Each structure stands twice: as structure tokens, then as C-alpha cells.
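hey so i finally got around to running both of the ones u sent me last week. sorry it took forever, my laptop kept dying halfway thru and i had to restart like 3 times lol. anyway pasting them below in the order u listed, first the sequence line then the C-alpha cell line for each. didnt double check formatting much so if smth looks off just lmk and ill redo it

first one:
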Amino acid sequence: MTAAALLDSLETLADAPGGIDHLRELVLHLAVRGRLVTQAPANEPASVLVDRIGASGAVEPCRVLKPIESAGLPEIPATWQWVRLREIVNLNVGKTPSTKNSQYWADEGGIPWVSIGDMEHYGFVTSTAKHISPKAQEEVFRTDPVPHDTLLMSFKLTIGKVARLDCDAFHNEAIVSVLPGEGEMKEYLFRLLPVFAALGKTKAAIKGNTLNKTSLANIPVAVPPLEEQHRIVARVDELMALLDRLEAAKEARDATRAQLRDAALAALQDANGAEEVKTAWSRIADHMHDLFTDPADIPPLRQSILRLATRGRLVAQDPLDEPPQIDLKAAKKLKREGLWSPSWVVDAPTQWARCPMACLGTWGSGGTPKKGNHDYYDGDIPWLKIADLNDGLVQHAETHITKRGLEDSSARMIPTGAVLLAMYGSIGKSGIAGIECCSNQAIAHCVPDDRAISASYLFRLIVSLREELLAQGKGGAQQNISQTVIKHLEVAVPPLQEQRRIVARVDELMALLDRLEASLSDLRATREAFATSAVRALPEHGVEAPAEGAITVG
């Protein structure tokens, strides 16, 4: 594929994951290799421009420059020339006044002082978070502020971020002022310095993620004839504007699709009874590939299905089903004022039983053997942590403890088939024990009373309640809930026969979503790989520059 053909496919590639960013990268890489515009033999060659800058005295002498070696650098047209950055510009590194001296700092009435956080990439610095005082100017900087419209570039930690000053200002030592010896080169350098700064970290040039003054001075820069620089700038701006419009159009399409998807999900969740659910689901199924185009779209649909299932709206009720046998003894130990329930419980089918979670089985939690005691760890008993929960069948534990570690801690054995629930941090993350195991104290487990509820249904009920459980979280950065809160949660439980029908229907729909999610993931990966390889391959191989004006910009 030629550069022209690829650029003609901009709209298609823009829809790939990360496509716009890849295409912006492509435009810049083609520009610095002379592949974006055609060369004009009548243009004064870059060597004359470079010699003129040197002879003018506009750029101060630099003693640390190394001979330029084109080996390993991209191939450029014959009329261009590779130079070191300091051959064509002056660089002034900023300073930071002592933060301990309050007299050096001022409020918004002071002199703007730029840090990297104040710079919008390819934008203008219109304001700064901090300002310095005239005293700092006199004692620290000892010069006038950097003038308006000066080009700035970061060269520490964040390398190659560029912006222009919209006001007179000073800046810190992680930023350098770039002052071209030929003023007309400013526009070219503003757009393409980030690409050259990245080249400055290659083995062919300079190593390291933080450029010092020497490495900064030696960044390799491909200099085109001045007239061609003007054409490159115009072409880059034209294509970047097109990509901006393509990005805005994609965002608008995505927003519209998200609204339609959310409306379809809302209709599904609000459906009353099996027939309405069937109708709402049919609407989604008929437009599945239009509404759900990203793997990230699938989890909300999974949750909607589970919420419908556990609220009695996914399968029809059978009046001949026998009600579940709920042992209410556990409820007598609960505090009435601690009981809580989601709003949907009151609207659940009348033949469903209402009861606290405490009545659905035997609840417990785990413990942690003393860390550092080698007699407690590396045994043969699986010891679960929240990271081991997978919202499915748990058959592996990263850590194992010994029998002694089990006996000397509050950890207890959990039988196969118990339902697991995270109480700390990732509240609501869950699973079904596929192995005999134990757990730490961050995981609650329930051995279901099979007269009342099956493990497979209880697991799906807990997953459907994740939002409600999260809302009960307490604490700071790491929220948590307690077994007490879980046991006091009142839910509605269908007859065992209906539980089996619900689980079967849920599994059928989840299998469909598994296939859809897998296909979307494959498609996304394919598109992303194509966009990446297409963008990366072109600059590495010789390509014909696309004809100027060949790209339609609407």
C-alpha cells in the first residue's frame, strides 16, 4: 500500500481502535521523511539554508556537537540535510526558584512560570498554575521573561511535548525555549520537533529518557528547503484538521450508538414479564451488531440479563412449582433495623419467597496465617485471595497453606460448590468453589441450603446484586462490606424448578454473548494490528509521496 492509498483510506482506518492516533503519527512520520509533499527541484537546497544560518551568527556556537551520522536515521530526499538541533536553533533551559523562599513566588498578579503541566501539546500556554515575583526574576533568572509566541519543548520525563507561549513567561528546568536561527523555520519545528526528539533517543543518536543539555543539542533534525517546509506545514495542518473532523464524527457516531444501546438496555430492564422481555430482547438481537460494536459494550448487557433473571422477568412462572423451603431460624438472630433490600424485591413474583441472605445457607469467612512463618505456607491447601476470584468456577489458588497454617488461623475449609464473595476492595467479585479450599478474611463464602437455593442460582443472584452491594461499601480508598451487611440483605427466591429454568436460560444467553464478545475482540485486534502495521511499515520503506490536493477535505 502506498502512502497515497493509505491516506485515501483515512476514514476507514480512523474507525480502528486507536486509529486516529496512529494516523496522526503516520502524518508526522511521512512529513519528516519527505513523503508527504513532492519535492521541487527549483527550491534552494537545505544545505544553503543551513550554511546561511551558520554564517549569520544568529545561532551561538556549541562545543558539544557530534558529527551527524545518517546510518540508522530515516532516509530523506537529496535536497534535505540532517543536522544537529543546536546547529539551527538556540536553546535556553529554564529554572525553578527555591520553593522554600516565599518571596520568590507570587499570586496571579506575578510573572507566569511554566511547568510541563501548563503545556497543552501543540497548543498555546495561556495561563500557568504558578507565578514568580520580580525578586525571583532579578535574583534567579536575571533576564527578561521569554517572549510571547516562543516555542517551548519539554525534555525531561515527558520528552518532546511542545507548546507556544501566549504571554511573556519564565519556565522550569524541564523545559527549553527553542529559538530558530531562521525565524521562518518555527512553524516546521513546532509541528515536527516531537518526532525528532523521539529520534534523539534511538541508538543511532542519543540514549535515555531524560535528555541533558548535550543530548538535547545533538537531537538529529531533518531540514528541508525552506519553501518545502512551508508546504509541509500546510499539508500537515490540512491532514490534522481532517483527522480532527474524522475524530469528531466518530465520537458523534459512538455517542449516538451509546444512546441507542442504553435505551435498548433500559427497555430490556424495564420489561414486565417474560413476553415483554422477549420483545425487548428481539429488538436487541435484531440490531446486535449495530448496538454492540466493542467488547466493552457486552458487560452491561450481561448484567441486564442477570438482573432480569433474578427479578422474575426472564422466564415464565409455573403455578405448579413448589415454593423453596426457607429455614427462617437464621433470621431470628438478625437485627430488624439492619435489614435492607433492593427496591425490586417488592415487585418480584408473588410465589417467590422473601428472606434475608442469612437464611439461604451457612455463611463464613476466612483468615490469614501469620506472614513470615514458613511452617504455614507452601502446603497443599489452596488459600484464596480476591485476585483468585474470577466471577466463575474457581479452580486455582495462587497461594497454598499447610494444615498447621489452617489450624493456627481463623481460615476454615470451604467445600466444593460453595459460593464466594469479595468483601474488601473489589466488592461483589465472586465465584463458585470448584475445589476444596480456604480463603483469607476478605472473602465471604456461603454453603447453600439446597432445599432453598442452588449454588448456581445463588452465584448468579450475587453477581446481579453487585451494584447494590457496592453501594453499601464503607471506608476510604478501599471500601468494604461485612458479613453482617450481606446476611441482612433481603432478597426474593424463586422455586427450585424455576431456578433451574432461569440458570439454563441465562447460560444460553451468556454463551451467545461469549461468542459475540470473542468476535468483537478478534475484530478489534485485527483492525488495531492493521492500523498499527500500516502506519509503522510505511516510514520504514520507500513510498511515493501522495499528490498534494489528493485528499478530499470536506
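and the second one:
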Amino acid sequence: MPAMLPRHVWLLALAVVALAAAVPGALASHATGGADVKVTLDNNNVDGGTPTASFDAKNRQSNETSVAISGVSSSIVAAAANDYRMVTVFGDVWFGLYVSGDGGSTWSNTMVPGFPSDTSAAGTSSPLLGLDASGDPIVRFDAAGNLYAAGIAFNRDFDQPDRPLDNVAYVAKYTYTPGSPGGTSTPNSAGNPPNFTYARTTIVDRGAVGFAVPSPFGFAGTFTDKPWMEIDENPPSASPCSGNVYVAHTNFHGLVGSSPIVFSGSSDGGATFVGPRTISTGGPGGTSFNQGADIAVASNGTIYIAYQAFERSNPPRDTVSVVKSTDCGNHWSQPVQLGPVITGQASGVAFRTPTFAFVAVDDTNPNLVYVAYQDLASGDYDVVARRSTDGGATWGGPVQVNTDPGARHQIFPTIEISHHALHVGWYDFRNTVTPSNEALDVFYACTNCAGASWPTFSHETRVTDVSHNGNCLTFGGGTAAFHGDYNELDAHWTGTNHLVNIAWADNRNVSPCDLDPAPGPPSNSTGNRNQNIYADRLTVSP
């Protein structure tokens, strides 16, 4: 959910039961990365005039990243973010889509069609047209190299014309057209990325009028939030669900209503979806209040979904739950709870730090499943991983991925599998030297790679070349910090090494960094809101 939306759920999810975690051993690092690459194309803190979908002329914010490596060519990488570059044109955030054809060394920028000022043929025919904003971005490729972008679109205000369509979850498809040049963007159109041609946008689920309800309600009806997408890239000989597109998200029902995880599937390349259906209830592990689903598809087509579940009790109780389908999402197991998790706002951190669960399944064994999340059990956030060897029926205890020098926070984990190796990335405050948590970095570790085997992780690798201050107050007129709610990495096995691409929100270009909670200074176009997306590619030995 992009900034300026009230997070009415995650602040309620505070837990009280400690979770013991083993601290991993450390082996020599065998991961090497290049220089950080700025994904956002901007004007380097100089006012560049009117922005377009492909150029951030006003040097505005972007955050909450997704990334995917094409299985057709590992040189093609897609990323996405909440992108605020067009705020001076239509007043809100939209889905920023970025594509690289050289493994992440250079990037093109565009936006999903249908934003409020989009008068192009693609924009005026989009089912998103008329909605104020779009975010919660996820990108994926199918086995043919086609690119998919999943997100939400919504209205913040309560204009009467908005009422028939207040918020949606959607999937946009870009057909892989090798060699096609990138299109030209304007303030009123979004060009195609190089090698891709926009095909269509499909609504997966519709919310009800409610997010934009005036005071005293603030929130009523149904709000679709935090969609996640995965595609079955297995060949038909391995999976009966080959080519299917899956989306899971949370439907928040009013301020105090339930928030089930719901699932939708498409067997026609995202043209139509069946669902949504609730998958988080049933049996002793079923829960009414949930958020943040992640999806993994096994080598035989089995689908795993992990999510955070919580009880609105006093004190509140949180857990991580997993469900499973072995028939392309037609039927689901009852939820399995992995155990209590301690959550809450990270102390000394100005931007929100919600806990989400992330799942990955071994690409050589469909019953070997991993889940990762952040946990406050030690008093500061750590990244922990857990493993199941029986298809998610039972789970081993938590293993702490990071070492913890100085008892600093490690947050926003992201995981993926390639050739049996589990790759983990996260935000890390370990380089902070004051109580103000002024130094934020991205770190990486792996297991079943670089000479390490579960439950031992490789020595952590610092991905970022320089630290940045995540607490810059770049939102709310200089009163709020926001770094999105997640980052993502993806991994690809070359036959010799693992390639790991990771993208994140970064404040290194924010100038000056406002830390005064008083309102102001006003947003300018010369750097005080210039939060950008950065990325890196690591090469990891087997």
C-alpha cells in the first residue's frame, strides 16, 4: 500500500510470545556484486520541467520494489515500484515499471497505462482509468518471456463519480517482442519498454466504496490490498498447471471487519481470472485477520502461500501461516501455523516496518519449502528462516539468517530459490553509529550455496555501496518517512553460478534530508524528495 494510505491493520499486530532462534554459523563470502545502479531516471536534483512516465523531471519519491529475471534471457530483468514522479501532473502515485536488457546495468522507465492523465489509446481503454493512484507492484515473467505486472489501483478521495469503482487488484500483460525499441512517453502516455509491447490490463478483484469514506468513518466497505503474483513456469510435462497465473491478496473489510487472504487463478495468460476465493480460514489454523500473502510454485505445480495472521486481542498475537494446493488452486489445505511471531514498529525507525511472510520452494524437491520473516523476539528485529521437508505439513525451528552486531534491526526480508540454493536479502541498520539509526544498507546471504548448507548461512555480503538515512521525512509535507513495505530479489542459475538481482528504495540522493518532524519545508524539485530505486546484480558461487 503506497504512502498516504492509513495502515489500519499492521500497527494492531503486536505480539508477546518470544520465539527462540538459532544464530547461524558464518562462512567465507562467495558473493560478488557490481556498483549500485540507479534504476530511476531523473534529473539529478535539478528541476527538469514537466515529468513523463519515463523521466522523473521533478526528482520525486519511489519505493516498494519488486524484481524478476526472465527465464528466456537472464539479461532481461524487470523491476517495479510505487512511483511518485507524476505527482505534479495528476497528484498521486502510480505503478512504475522498469526494464533492463543488460542484466541490470542500465534501465528504461515507464508506467502501466491508465493513470489519470493518460489520454493514449492504451490509457483510455484501460479498466484503471478514472482511479486516482496505483501501487503495491509485483512483476513476473512467464516461460515464453512475457512480462506481467500486478498491483492495486484506488481512489483516495470521495468524488461521487468514483463510487462505482473505488479500488481494484489487477494484472497488466506485456507481450515479449524481442528487438522492439522502447516507446516514447509523455505526461499523457506511457511508452512500451524495449523488447515488450503492452497487451492489456485485467481486473482480478474489485473492492467496494470505502477507502475514501469521509470522516468519521475513514474506512469502510472492502479494500483490496497487497496483491502478490506468481506464474507456473514449469513445462506441461512437469506440471498440470503449466502457464497459470496466480494472484493472492488481502480483502480488508472495514475498520474492524475480517481481512481474509483470497486467491485467484488464470489459465489463459491473465486474460481472465477465476476467483477470488478465501484460503485463510478453516480448521484449527484458520484465522479471520490476515495480511501480506506471498506465493511460490513448486517444480510439479504445487502452490504454496505464506501470510501473516493475527488476532485482535489484548495483547495481540501474531503468527505466520502457510496453505497449499496440489491441483492448480482448485482446492486448498487448511492453514498450518508456524508459531508465534513478535511484531511491531521497529524502535528508532521513522518509516513503518510491517512484518510479512515470504515463501520459496526448492526447484529440485517440491516438498522442501522455506519461509522467512522478521521477528522482534531478541529485542531488535532479526531475519529468520524456517524449513519444511514434508510439503509444509510440519516445520523446523527458526534459524536466524543475519548476525547481529550492535543489536541493530534487520528488516524487510526477501527470499528466492535457484538450483537448490536459498537466497535472502534484507535491509540492515548494522552500520549505524548513533541511536538515530542513520545508516541503512542492503545485505545478502545464502544457504546451500557458497560452501554453506542449511541451517548454516554464508557470510553476509553488503550489497549497497553506501549507506543511506531511511528516516528522511520525504512524505506528508515533511512530516513522515516511508520506505514502502517490502523489497525483492530474484535468482537465476546459469549452470555455473547463481545470478541474484535485488532492488530497493534508497535515500542517498535526498538533499537535504529533513529529520525535523515539524511540517515543511515544502516539496521542491531539486532534491528534498528524491528517494530513488537502486539495484545490483550479485554473482554467487555454488
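quick thing i noticed on the 2nd:
The CA atoms of residues 350 and 485 lie 13 Å apart.
anyway thats it, ttyl
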